[in-house]
Amino acid sequence: MRPFLLFLAPFALAAQTAVLENAGVRAVFDLAGGSLIELELRDMRLNPLTWDSNGPAPRPRGHFLCFDRWGQPSASELKNGMPFHGEATRVSWKLEHSTAGEARMSAHLPLAGLSMERTAKLAGQAALRVTETVTNRNKLGRMYNLVQHATIAPPFLDETTLVDANARKGFMQSSPLPNPEEPPVWWPMAMREDKAVNLRHLKDDPNPNVVSYVVDEELGWVTAASPAKGLLIGYVWRVREYPWLNIWRNVEKGKPSARGLEFGTTGLHQPFETLVAKQKIFGRRLYDYLDAGGTATRSYAAFLAKVPAGFQGVAKVSYDGSRLTLAERDSRRAIVVETGPLFPD
To answer: Model pTM?
Structure first.
């Protein structure tokens, strides 16, 4: 399965990237597909978001957007040109406006008839706040999905990387329809045939390949920590906007090659016809809907933190309106990331 001071890059790249940077962190967006392709602490220069689909540009890279769908189109949609995961990474994004520490960019999806406006702003010394507004440009209402496909890869990702989240009940995408959620699994565990698998870890076996979970708290969070390299990347979002967390795992030549930390509006990796037939899993909807001319706005934040050698992973992430506190598993230690406000009122 699968597949800060703001400045533009040097003139030759000006049409391709937007770079946000302050004393603590650097973020780079690829306008050929809209992906967040770099997020790194300036004094470490280790970028977790190095994954690349390696196709022609525009293409999915790093943290990319699955929009207007997550997964494959129907056979007829594919024949008409709709790509896997939608058009968002297959079109060029326009840099609309930029100031110190902030960029606004937009994209239009010609087949879906949807558009997006994104504002990215650095928050504190180690966080990035992103707000995205979807508009339905069609003369009729339509269903859609939006999944943030944040993808970590080597050299940050290796066999020692620890993934943690406040996910709860879940199911394997490989489980048979019409009821793949029966019986459920519980984070961080999943099943491969009759064997339990802990998804916090990835070594040489990527199965189960994709597992989807719901979150029951007001804020969802997911982190990936590399104690050997001293770095953690994480995301936090409002569960009312993104009720699902989808975990993708991939291995190449016996080594971890990618992990998708994917939060979004759906947890079923199927064409819309199947989503309509299923409607909900665990009481959560599997798609969203916009009337003609309608808009919907969602936000999330990405953050980085240094972690000590021997770090055991994250037990809990708390947010008090100005900082994130990461409590270490099986420890009294905590890491604080000063962010300021992360979500619009």
So the answer is: 0.94
